[in-house]
Amino acid sequence: MLDIVNVEKTFNPGTVNEKKALCGINLHLDEGDFVTVIGGNGAGKSTMLNMIAGVYPVDCGSIIIDGVDVTRLPEHKRAKYLGRVFQDPMTGTAADMQIEENLAARRGARRGLRSRITAKEKKEYKELLKILGLGLEDRLTAKVGLLSGGQRQALTLLMATLKKPKLLLLDEHTAALDPKTAKKVLNITEEIVAKDHLMTIVITHNMAVAIRIGNRLIMMHEGRIVVDIKGEEKKKLTIEQLLQMFEASSRSQMTSDKVMLTK
Asked: CA 212 to CA 207: how far, in whole Å?
């Protein structure tokens, strides 16, 4: 379902600010794989997601989604294969539009035309929103700008998965939320991913979360995948073992700037 083959990316090549962000990344994901990605600042986690999404062109290598080589496709032409949620809960929805208008727009209806949202569609949206367990199914006409950050992020997640994407990309999508809300959104994430059997990559700075959710864990360091664990081996992991793996793979001791190892 997803093949990343020898992908490299260098920013500002040939300058004093040259940064080798990805160093020959190779990654294969099967349908239904739910992968958590951890690594220190500058490890290449978000760059990898951006390369998959087409935000930046690759220097070399290839990216294949569901058998389609998307390596040279621009970002907007890859969008039909992908769902994506970012860290900032304010970026995934239109604040001045109603909840039902946001959902209609994501489904392809013309934005802002309330008359186009039929009674049947309203009923469908109510059923979808019940999945979130936040009471939003009774607030279809509420402006999204009036919702809390957690409610907006949960709505963004629902919108990102409405069309059942081939791949769901979650870039620290709970990091900006308070712990209680983050846990709620994470639970919703697991429910939606399981229900639709979505192939998913989620970046997290929380090692306990990285161990608990998903069937596979990847650790990155300086643009490389240094640890790749799946199945029963992942289920038995402890935070202490992950720390040891990081130190062995990176050949460095943990320091305060490697905040990915937040317990």
From this structure: 9
- Give the contacts of 99 (CB within 8 A, at least 6 positions apart): 125, 129, 136, 139, 140, 141, 142, 144, 147, 155
Mean pLDDT of the chain: 91
Residue 199: how many other CB atoms lie within 10 Å: 22
Check: pTM over 0.85? Answer yes or no. Answer: yes
Strand 167-171, strand 60-65: pairing: unpaired
Can you tell me the distance from the alpha carbon of 40 to that of 7, in angstroms, rounded to the nearest whole number? Answer: 20
For position 257, what pLDDT does the model report? 38
Q: Between residues 255 and 221, which one has the greater pLDDT?
A: 221
Confidence at residue 241, expressed as pLDDT on a 0 to 100 scale: 92
Beta strand extents in 91-199 (DSSP E only)? 167-171
Report d(CA 260, CA 153) in Å as an integer.
Answer: 21
Per-residue pLDDT of 154-181, as tens digits, reads 999 999 999 999 999 999 999 999 999 9
Helix (H) / strand (E) containing 230: strand 224-230
CA angle 137, 141, 144 (to 5 degrees): 85
Q: Residue 45 corresponds to which amino acid?
A: K
Whether 109 shows a pLDDT value over 60: the answer reads: no
For helices 179-196 and 149-160, angle between their N-to-C axes, nearest 10 degrees: 10
Biggest CA–CA distance in the chain, Å, is 61
Q: What is the rounded CA–CA span in Å between residue 188 and residue 251? A: 37
Q: How far, in Å, CA of 18 to CA of 141, rounded? A: 49
